[in-house]
Amino acid sequence: MKPPYYAVIFSSTPSADNRGYAEMAERMFALAAEQPGYLGVETGRGAAGNGITISYWKDSQSVRDWKANEDHLKAQDLGMRQWYDQYTVRICRVEREYGSDLLG
């Protein structure tokens, strides 16, 4: 990815009732990858279950379109009602990036 681009950072604390969560998460990863402007995703989960997912997008319109996707809206509603005790979404414009894998 070449900056500038956008990162949507989703961090969450899961609730005790996670029925259907893993299946929906896989569906959302696949659906996001089909969206115009999608650049990629990184995700991780701590030992206590807290999670973070960062999706990358070409521009802010792509982020807004993903937020408004009908299937994604259904997943968001389930997340708020059933799967998360707490969540935070941060949207950032990435101006530059560097790291050891970018030197070669």
Task: Give a description of the structure.
The longest helix has 14 residues, at 70-83. Helices cover 35% and strands 35% of the residues. A hairpin with a 5-residue loop joins strand 2 (38-45) and strand 3 (51-57). Strands 2-3-1-4 form a 4-stranded antiparallel sheet. It has one domain (5-98): Alpha-Beta Plaits. It is α+β, with helices and mostly antiparallel strands and 104 residues long. It is built from 3 helices and 4 strands; from the N terminus they run βαββααβ.
Features:
globular, 104 residues, alpha+beta, four-stranded antiparallel beta sheet, Alpha-Beta Plaits, 3 helices, 4 strands, 35% helix
Quick structural overview:
With 104 residues, this protein is of the alpha+beta class. The protein has helices spanning 21-33, 60-68, 70-83; strands at 5-14, 38-45, 51-57, 84-94. The protein is built from three helices and four strands; from the N terminus they run βαββααβ.
SS content category: alpha+beta
How would you write the strand order of the largest sheet?
2-3-1-4
Tell me the CATH architecture.
2-Layer Sandwich
Cα(first) to Cα(last) distance is 15 Å
Low-confidence stretches: none
Order of helices and strands: EHEEHHE
Question: Layout of helices and strands, plus pairs?
Answer:
Elements: E1 5-14, H1 21-33, E2 38-45, E3 51-57, H2 60-68, H3 70-83, E4 84-94
Antiparallel strand pairs: 1-3, 1-4, 2-3
